[in-house]
Design a protein that fits this description.
The chain has 552 residues and is α/β, with parallel strands linked by helices. Among the domains are: 201 residues, Urocanase like domains (Rossmann fold, 3-Layer(aba) Sandwich), CATH 3.40.50.10730; 143 residues, 3-Layer(aba) Sandwich (Urocanase fold). The protein contains 18 helices and 17 strands. Strands 3, 4, 5, 12, 13, 14, 15, 16 and 17 form a 9-stranded mixed beta sheet that branches. Helix 4 crosses helix 5, helix 8 runs parallel beside helix 10 and helix 13 runs antiparallel to helix 14. The structure holds nicotinamide-adenine-dinucleotide.
């Protein structure tokens, strides 16, 4: 039975033993589509996160996807083009059940204005990374990534602990909403600025945020008190980051860590310029988007100038993957790229070993399934400090949103081993139902984005998008259940291409084969991608784990 969803009553959380589709593979993918809407930011508009990231192109397209998934046979493949189903083809039971290409625009045309024009004409939609691929699991999807970044900074700069440290950030949306909880879990006092009070209240309601401060003075006093006591806390302040960051700088206050996760990548549908309220911005989106682009870019120059000032005073400042430096540079801040990107600064050594954001969703809707898998992870990987620490913390601190799910940064071999063991638990009836496995698109072999994932690659291959395409073809060849190629839309048009994958562990031998091939080959390709670029860690991993790297 689906469960009521207090956040979006019209979008219940799927679950229960009854199938509407002809197989668990199709039923699982259908539940994941329902899930991204149940945990999404504006499901009535099909919007899941990142301002414009959609689950399907239109409501009629959504209805046709649902109908197709309920009717599809085991030897057929549903084809989806930019959020619209266009065909069901006869393939074979070892082929993917769904393949998608979302928002891929030919090179010279891949610009925000061309995207908006085609979107208005109903020809395209942007799937974000995990929205259009039905893999989004709420703010918890990025929470370990954010936590690991904070912990890497703690190790490098603060003797391994963030107790008594002040983190300043902004954006409490679909992804940015993970920041307050990640900051608190890392032991810091974190202040999160957002213009939209409803977003802050929602994060507080679902347990991701402790308190909302009435004004800047109170917010800074609350942070000061927490830092003095070495107490972890998360505080939100309603306001515009382009005004509040410079104000904090002008008061001579320097946070220990500064970042930002407003939707700065999209100046029309995402970022709110200083001095503009939300109703005015909503009107201008239709009536005068050019005004918003201009005002947004000016605001971002102030926003980033303050971040650079904090950096000059010694704060650890980084870009958390929202294109804010790119916008600032276009607005005239020549040294915006003095701020490092999080992937290159903190996470690349993990990606070199294909350790990245792996995730699983209990299709039964039962939280006890995730608890049993947590126990399994702790038993299987006792030597893996990153993962055992994370699972213990996540159990204690991360509330479930939508289908019960967990994320954990596992690498080559580990993902396959875990998923096959879970598949055996499904077969033996230890779990209440099948489990879907997936990963973020921001994963070792899966994404090209020269200002986020692949910035500063050792061999200069930042803009080469062959890797995500090879990744998707490899996943199709390996029989994954859903395979997708995404490129950027809105403000991200022309900036990125990525691949996504989902496999349903339904307890069958066929699922065991899919998990073994797809997950092993996915992480092998991740190691190969970094080995090819000449990273020593990846070359070492490739040799140690015999991933099949061909060396010239
Ligand atoms: P979202 O659209 O759901 O939320 C953005 C939030 O920013 C909203 O709450 C909005 O009110 C707020 N905001 C906008 N302008 C503001 C301003 N000037 N001052 C204060 N608040 C402002 O977006 P999201 O899903 O949270 O994603 C945020 C950004 O992070 C996007 O650019 C997205 O692409 C990027 N992202 C990064 C990663 C990563 O791995 N690092 C992952 C996913 C998304």
């Amino acid at each position: 039975m689906p469960k009521p969803n207090p956040r979006h009553p019209d979008f219940p959380i799927p679950g229960g033993p009854a199938l509407r589709a002809k197989s668990w593979r199709a039923e699982g993918l259908l539940r994941l589509l329902e899930n991204v809407l149940s945990v999404g930011e504006a499901p009535d508009k099909l919007i899941v996160y990142a301002a414009l990231g959609k689950a399907a192109r239109t409501w009629p397209a959504h209805a046709a996807i649902v109908k197709s998934l309920t009717e599809i046979e085991e030897d057929e493949t549903l084809i989806i083009q930019s959020g619209k189903p266009v065909g069901i083809l006869k393939t074979h039971p070892g082929a993917p059940m769904v393949i998608m290409a979302n928002c891929n625009i030919v090179g010279q045309w891949a610009k925000a204005d061309v995207f908006y024009d085609m979107e208005r004409k109903g020809l395209i939609c942007w799937g974000g990374l995990t929205a259009g691929a039905w893999q989004y699991i709420g703010s918890q999807g990025v929470i370990q990534g954010t936590y690991e970044i904070f912990m890497r900074i703690a190790e490098r700069r603060f003797g391994g602990s963030l107790a008594g440290r002040f983190i300043l950030t902004a954006g409490l949306g679909g992804m940015g909403g993970a920041q307050p909880l990640a900051g608190r879990m890392a032991g810091a006092a974190i202040l999160c600025i957002d213009v939209d009070e409803d977003r802050a209240k929602m994060r507080q309601d679902i347990g991701f945020l402790d308190e909302i401060a009435p004004d800047l003075d109170s917010a800074l006093a609350m942070i000061d008190a927490a830092c003095a006591e070495g107490r972890a806390t998360s505080i939100a302040l309603i306001g515009n980051a382009a005004e509040i960051y410079p104000e904090i700088a002008a008061r001579g206050i320097t946070p220990d860590i500064v970042t930002d996760q407003t939707s700065a990548h999209d100046l029309v549908y995402g970022y709110i310029p200083a001095g503009y309220d939300l109703p005015r911005v909503r009107r201008l989106r239709e009536q005068n988007p050019e005004e918003l682009i201009e005002a947004g870019r000016i605001s971002i120059t102030h926003h980033v100038a303050a971040m650079l000032e904090f950096q000059a005073r010694g704060a650890e400042v980084f870009d958390n993957g929202n294109l804010i430096r790119t916008q600032a540079k276009q607005g005239g801040i020549e040294n915006a790229f003095d701020i490092p990107i999080f992937t290159e600064a903190y996470l690349r050594p993990l990606f070199c070993r294909a350790i990245g954001p792996f995730r699983w969703m209990a299709l039964s809707g039962e939280e006890s399934d995730i608890a049993r898998i947590d126990d399994l992870v702790l038993r299987m990987f006792p030597e893996n400090g990153i993962v055992t620490n994370w699972i213990r913390l996540a159990r204690a601190h991360v509330p479930f949103e939508g289908l019960p799910a967990r994320i954990a940064w596992l690498g080559h071999g580990e993902r396959t081993e875990l998923a096959r063991a879970v598949n055996r638990m499904v077969a033996s009836g230890e779990l209440a139902g099948p489990v879907a496995f997936s990963r973020d698109h921001l994963d070792a072999g899966a994404m090209a984005h020269p200002n986020i994932m692949t910035e500063g690659m050792r061999d200069g291959s930042d803009a080469i998008a062959d890797w995500p395409l090879i990744s998707a073809m490899t996943l199709c060849s390996s029989g994954a259940d859903l395979v997708v190629v995404h490129s950027g839309g809105g403000g991200y048009a022309g900036y990125m291409t990525s691949s996504g994958v989902t496999i349903v562990a339904d307890g069958t031998e066929a699922a065991d084969m899919r998990l073994k091939l797809a997950l092993t080959n996915d992480t092998a390709l991740g190691v190969i991608r970094y080995a090819d670029a000449g990273y020593a860690d990846a070359l070492d991993e490739a040799q140690k784990k015999a991933v099949g790297h061909v060396k010239l």
